[in-house]
From TrEMBL:
Keyword terms of this UniProt record: DNA-binding, Transcription, Transcription regulation
CDD domains in alphabetical order: WHTH_GntR (cd07377)
Organism: Vreelandella malpeensis
SUPFAM superfamilies, per the entry: GntR ligand-binding domain-like, Winged helix' DNA-binding domain
Annotated protein name in UniProt: GntR family transcriptional regulator
SMART domains the record matches: FCD, HTH_GNTR
Annotated ranges, domain HTH gntR-type: 7-74
Length: 226
């Protein structure tokens, strides 16, 4: 992996570790090896430890007193609690977006949606997720509410590996695409109530996918695994 040379070193390191967690290279419950990551990224322990503090604040890892750090395990309850808040925020963003969004931005989001459908037809899951993410980000941005966007972003980091899980069955994928069709239709009609409703319900199947994929544990693992 390319060594990190950017000015905000600890943030860049945090982002790289976050990517490892998202893509399953660092598994839930796995201990973080500072030595291995320092060698991998070509950095000293100081920015690495600052990065770990950032990731702990974002809910991706937990710091263990005098024992380093490990990747947080996601339980069904923790994910559901997070999604309940995210759904409320995303639903509100849809309502606000319909009040503030420009016609040009609606057309731009429609173009992204059409591109996403092409990736769906090609069964290109990686590109599908990338465009999917851009659509949600554009709707959030159209809410014209920076506080909402910041709160949503912080919560989303905690469950990113669930939301964009690679374990997507055809049934779940088809449902997600149908949801997006409804989103775009509501947005073009500037129907804030409908868009808010669809966005709130859209996250529900993500928990099912992650549970089936083994990303979420049914019960809290407890102190016995510490």
């Amino acid at each position: 992996m390319t060594k990190i040379l950017q000015r905000n070193l600890y943030r860049e390191v945090a982002d790289r570790i976050g990517d490892l967690i998202e893509h399953g290279e660092l598994a839930p419950g796995e201990r973080i090896s500072e030595r291995e990551l320092c060698e991998r990224f070509g950095v000293s322990r100081t920015p690495l430890r600052e990065a770990l503090k950032v990731l702990a604040a974002e809910g991706l890892i937990e710091l263990l007193p005098n024992r380093g750090a490990r990747v947080v395990r996601l339980t069904f309850k923790s994910v559901k609690d997070t999604y309940d808040l995210m759904a409320a925020l995303e639903g509100l963003s849809g309502e606000l977006a319909c009040q503030h969004i420009s016609t040009a931005d609606i057309r731009s989001i429609r173009a992204l949606h059409d591109a996403m459908l092409a990736h769906y037809e090609a069964r290109d899951l990686t590109r599908y997720f990338e465009v999917n993410r851009q659509i949600h980000e554009r709707i959030l941005a159209a809410s014209d509410n920076p506080v909402l966007q910041e709160m949503y972003s912080n919560l989303s980091q905690r469950v990113k590996r669930v939301r964009y899980s690679k374990q997507m069955t055809d049934t779940f994928w088809k449902r997600a695409v149908e949801d997006h069709e409804q989103m775009i239709d509501a947005l073009e009609k500037r129907d804030g109530q409908k868009l808010g409703q669809v966005l709130r319900e859209h996250l529900c199947n993500k928990i099912e996918i992650a549970t089936l994929a083994g990303v979420i544990e049914e019960e809290d693992p407890g102190a016995a695994r510490a």
